[in-house]
Amino acid sequence: MPRRGFTTIELLVTIAIISVLMALILPAVQQAREAARRTQCKNNLKQIALATIQFHDNIGSFPPGRIIPRPGDPQELSCGRDTPSWLVRILPYLEQGNFADDWDMRENFQDHPEEVRTRAISTYLCPSRRSASTAKIPTVTVEFTASCGCSGPQTFFSGATGDYGGNHGDLSPGAIGFTSDFYWGGNGNGVIISSRSFCVAGQPRDWIDKIRNRDITDGSSNTILAGEMHVNAQKINQAPDDGTIYSGWHFSFSTRIGGVHVPLAPNKDYVDTRLYSFGSWHPGVCQFGFADGSVHALSTSIDEEILGYLCVRNDNEVTSGF
Predict the structure, then answer these.
(1) Domain range spanning residue 245?
(2) DUF1559 domain location, by residue (predicted)?
(3) How many domains does the chain have?
């Protein structure tokens, strides 16, 4: 009887055809997966925006990005620098009430238990970048350089990382070592800004510099509330480039700015030495939640001036069609 089977040439041709088909299909599969991740990221920003608006409606103002005094402030205003960030304050509006109960907004971030500081929640994570099981940094001391007078060896305490930051405004108030610089309490011109606080027994109580809907004179549909924070792909989960989002120690851990001289990061490999920029790992776009609760994807090549109009709450520059 003749022997049945493939010849070597037939086998090689079959393998080659399968390889070509796989090469054609794989990019489509990857694009479909990225589209799904981008949709989940958009949903996260929608939840964050709506939770922040609910906070405003219940409390009477948007949450402060962090509590920090201005240099030279009197003692009754000079407290709260290391307390938790705004992303802790909105937890109850994200159906995270039990987690919110583990935090004390009057206490320093680092004084909370490590299991609280390092607990990541999926709403604060873009699936294109990381998962809850990997979203954390250890306690580490590094040489930190910044224009805020905090250069030198700095200890960054362990905590959960995340991908969304509040809109602190633009660079126009300055960042050159003056008390008017944008990162000090009350100087930001965005929506989620640094604020000073009234102090009782050395602990912060109510915050002073409150941003309300009426302060967004450009209109809530024309003003960014929060967006994706840029993190260089080589610095993921490495302080200070990727800080813990629950800490109010530095503005860039949970807020960012945008505008002239602060463009959107064009890609995940962009190097932003000042740690100011918004940016995503989605090709060509960065997603933002606006103060009216809507979510929009902006091109990473958006004009810096237009980006600034969207970040500043009261510059009388209303931008449409972005």
Answers:
(1) 8-311
(2) 30-305
(3) 1
Whether residue 3 lies inside any domain: the answer is no
The amino acid at 89: R
In Å, the largest CA–CA distance within the chain is 102
Q: Are the beta carbons of 42 and 295 closer than 8 angstroms?
A: yes
Distances (CA, A) of 287 to 8, 33, 46, 49, 279: 52, 17, 10, 12, 8
Q: Is residue 12 part of a domain?
A: yes
Amino acid at 36: A
* pLDDT of the chain, 322 residues: tens digit per residue: 555 666 777 778 888 888 887 777 766 666 778 889 999 999 999 999 999 999 999 999 999 999 999 999 999 999 999 999 999 999 999 999 999 999 999 999 999 999 999 999 999 999 999 999 999 999 999 876 665 556 678 899 999 999 999 999 999 999 999 999 999 999 999 999 999 999 999 999 999 999 999 999 999 999 999 999 999 999 999 999 999 999 999 999 999 999 999 999 999 999 998 999 999 999 999 999 999 999 999 999 999 999 999 999 999 988 876 6
202 touches 79 (CB < 8 A):
yes
Does some domain include residue 317?
Answer: no
User: Is residue 293 situated within a structural domain?
Assistant: yes
Spatial distance between the Cα atoms of 15 and 151, rounded to a whole number of angstroms:
59
d(CA 87, CA 52): 9
What gap in Å lies between CA 48 and CA 71, rounded to an integer? 31
Q: Prior bond to 240 cis, omega within 30? A: yes
Yes or no: say if 316 and 192 are a contact pair by the CB < 8 Å rule: no
DSSP 47: H
Angstrom distance (rounded) from CA 288 to CA 265: 14
Determine the 3-state secondary structure of 244 from DSSP: coil
